[in-house]
Amino acid sequence: MDTLDLADATPATGIVWAYRFRADGAAEPIPQDKIEAMLAEHGTGWIWLHLGLADIRCRNWIARRAPISDLAREVLAGPDTAPAPRYPGPRDCRRGAGSASGIRTTR
After folding, report:
1. Dihedral (C-alpha) 100, 102, 103, 106: value to the nearest 10 degrees?
2. Tens of pLDDT along 32-63?
3. Which residue among 47, 69, 85, 103 is the one 20 to 30 A from 28 at the CA level?
């Protein structure tokens, strides 16, 4: 099954907040139900969307409806290919004089 079918693709889902910045620099919040209409307008100023990319609904909206370039769509809606960070766990730490805290990590 295609993950795009798992959730809808409305802008209100997965968008944390949105603001329109006018030409004078003043910002005004955009209600969730007005985001697409504001994005379609070609007025002065610009729009800031804070996207929750961990939310599949947001990625679906980007993939299907966001007014962005194909490259931006590929980067924002595509799979996350960055390696997961590795944090030292209990087996990776030992007491030692090698650090100020007395704990050093092994690799």
Report:
1. 90
2. 888 888 888 877 889 998 888 888 888 888 89
3. 69
